[in-house]
Amino acid sequence: MLRFWLSGIVIAVCLSYFLQFNDSPKSGGARKPASLSLFKGSALDAKDILEAASAPDLKVTKARVMIDNDAAFDSKLEAIRSARPGETIRLSYYIYSQDESSAVFLAELLKAAARGVHIRLMADFITNYGNLDLFSYLEAQGHGMIQIKLYGRPTPLIVRDVMFMTSPCPSTSDKVKPTTCSDAKWATLGKAYPDFYARLLLAGLYDLDFTAVTTAIIKGQILDIDGLMKSGNASSDDKKQLLEFFKLVYKAKAKHDPIAGVKVLLALQLYGDKLNPVLNEILGRVPLSQKGDKSLQDWEHVTDFTHHKVLIVENRFVQLGGRNIENSYHMKPNTLTTKYIFMDTDMSAELSGGGEAISKAYDRLWNFSTMTVPLKDVRSLMPNDYVVNSEAMKASFDKCANKNYQTPEDRIRFEKCVEFEITRHPKYETLPARMAKIAKTLENGVKAYNTLYLPKKAYTQSWKTGPTYSDELSPNDMNGLLLAYIENLPFDRREKEANLERRFGSIPGQELKYGKYIHQLWYKGLEHACNTSVKEGKEKRVIIHSAYFLPPALLLSGFAKMMDGTWDCHKVRVTLLTNSPETTDLNHINIAARYVMSKFFQTVQNRREIFGSYSDARAARFEYFEYVKESAGSGLSLHTKASVLGNDMIIGSANADVRSYYMDTNNGFFVRGAKELTASYVEFIDSITADRKKTRDLTAEYSNPAMSTESIYASDKKMLEGLLSKSDFTKKLSPEMKEKVFSAFHSIVGFVSDATTKILIKDRNKFAGVAENDSDSQRRQEQAQKEQAMKYDRLLQLL
Questions:
Q1: Do residues 640 and 67 touch, judged by C-beta distance below 8 A?
Q2: Cα distances (Å, whole numbers) of residue 576 to 181, 548, 644
Q3: Where are the beta strands (DSSP E) in 379-490?
Q4: SS3 content of the chain, % helix, strand, coil (to 5)
Q5: Beta strand pairing status for 346-353 and 317-321?
Q6: Strand partners, 472
Q7: Residue 717 to residues 155, 591, 725, 726, 752: CA-CA distances in angstroms?
Q8: Considering only CA atoms, which of 621, 437, 462 is closest in space to residue 529?
Q9: Backbone phi, then psi, for 488, in 5-degree steps?
Q10: Residue 633 — φ and ψ, nearest 5°?
Q11: Residue-range domains of the chain with CATH
């Protein structure tokens, strides 16, 4: 029962975001492009690059762009081997695995540490909490030369809420009020440190261990849900009404729903004596009635990842791109891996100058203690000893269970009993024992790689054409190269390091303030490609080659300006190339993108009617392609994040999706002046999109009015019905509840479609029936557009 209760809270939190955005658009269309200033564009000049780049002027002696997994992996290994005693290796990746290629990689890091190389390793907290023992092993074997930090630590407000959810309601002899329990908790939480139950809940949440989560809450709160529901001789109808009352309280408190609030007040007026204890229980168990700082924003951004992927050797070498530390990124199809093999892109640069700025940029994030935390502090806050010994943990919970668990003394006895019993279980493993197993796993991994994979390894894939393999930039490109290191960060890096403050999400038009430097350059690069095409009088290409394509409002607005005539882009061809639902590892992105792309391409198709003939002479040409599973090969999936912006390129870790814009850190290279690289990469992409065995062209399909929001929804609803029919949990849902699920999903996709239209068709004067020279109306429109863009990004980041 508690499982359904907790699941309901999570679902309600998500739906509260979805449903509050259900704002239907007005119909119609303006006859000329808008002049709104929400996303102001300008030519992408040296000043813009300098402002956005963490390291704007790198002196490069050699550069490579590697689409071959083996070549990219060997490049990293060679860079680590080149590190000399006293130098520093800095690295950050989203995923670290313990498979064969990763064992080789980690072995090289340990060898570097043994010869006196300092190593700083950063990893995403949520993704790598399960690797806590691996990282402890590396630090121990590094003998002081390896330092490890995790990015995305639980915020103080999240820790406070976890403490709230694992502490009992104090007993009182006074008359119970609706907030008696929660008031008492809030009064003491600020002075407390997470106890056994709070640490257990944190570990369970980050390890996705349901037993740890439920035990921490039930035992920590001395929770009696059955007693709450029984309420004396409560009937089935009484229980249903109690659940409905709970929903009203949630809507009133968490969603700030005034109507629900009125209903709660009426219920308390009519049934106060009966409902006050219930309300006290609800508010005392879940941190809805918060004192002071509210944590809803912290929970919304709890999965803000570090998506940086970078290896820096001293100040003289850097390699970055889309690859993580795992077989899937560092191998071609083989018998050692059954997961996806990713088609990815890395770029490396050997530097004679400017590398200090990259190291400084790394250290700025490393030292940002609001988000990063050393390994020892992770173990202090949320040790993993219980969740990694799940069988022993469950057995100890069972052995220490007490049917008459009712008092604070029982709570203390349970904790002491579990701490004693778990270590006596025959399958309990101490940290040293677990690290010894990791050492053996890595040793076996190295042997397997060297014997089963290494002999067959060969470089076969390149963006260049020619009889022999090559991935280096040409001498001509090196002579004209401008290479800048760029990032998306959780702060405004232009501030002094001591004053850095975490920024949540982003506000349209304020990308620099919110640390979205990659997207600032991306957006400006679109207009710059148009300007360059007009200036040079020849076609320029914009190519978005991205594993996950669900453009944030900023990029969608840029595409709109390329289409509606705001920018003169008539000599620009825009190619969008991404995964299909069959080749991706995240097909929900494709599901959401269908609603966005159908609205976009149908707006392109009808631009004369919407914007008038003005757009005909200035609009860019757009085309959309997806990879085909059969041609890519079984298990192959695109993971590249590379863009062509006229004469420029961006290669890095940022996808063309909302998450990369709104939530995660990312990094990359901005490339200018590499004409031969850009031309060859365009040819490389064109060869892929021209081959129907490799890709399919969906431009016409998305442009067809028959592909409406409702038709897509009808197809998705069938898929959703199929999923519900296969789930043991959802099989228990009533027809009414299933219909509510469908209705919520319909509201979500309806909002996505409507918001896309509003972002694309910015001029709302005609819709509102006001004069076009009305400056107050113009400001209102700009504010409305900004709010719409923020809602769009905020909703889609939940995916």
A1: yes
A2: 55, 11, 11
A3: 482-488
A4: 55, 15, 35
A5: antiparallel
A6: 64
A7: 37, 11, 12, 14, 16
A8: 621
A9: -105, 130
A10: 105, 145
A11: 2-46+464-796 (3.30.870.10), 68-154+304-382+430-456 (3.30.870.10), 156-299 (no CATH)
Nearest residue to 170 (alpha-carbon basis) of 407, 414, 415:
407
**Helix or strand or coil: residue 330?**
helix
End-to-end Cα separation, the chain, in angstroms:
27
What strand order describes the sheet that includes 118-124?
59-66, 346-353, 317-321, 310-313, 88-93, 118-124, 146-151, 372-374
> With contact defined as beta carbons under 8 Å apart, do 573 and 618 qualify?
no
Angle at 82 between CA 80 and CA 86, to 5 degrees: 90
| pLDDT tens by residue, 409-429 | 999 999 999 999 999 999 999
Parallel, antiparallel or unpaired: strands 549-550 and 621-627:
unpaired
Is residue 755 helix, strand or coil? helix
Which residue did the predictor score with more confidence, 607 or 105? Answer: 105
Q: Please state, in angstroms and rounded to a whole number, the distance separating the CA atoms of residues 67 and 638.
A: 11
- 3-class DSSP state of 342: strand
List pLDDT tens digits, range 193-222.
899 999 999 999 899 888 998 899 889 988
Please provide residue 429's backbone torsions phi and psi, each rounded to the nearest 5 degrees. -120, 130
**Residue 247 has which token pair?**
């929903």
DSSP string, 121-190: EEEEHHHHGGGHHHHHHHHHHHTTSEEEEEESPPPHHHHHHHHHHTSPPPP-SSPP-TTHHHHHHHHHHT
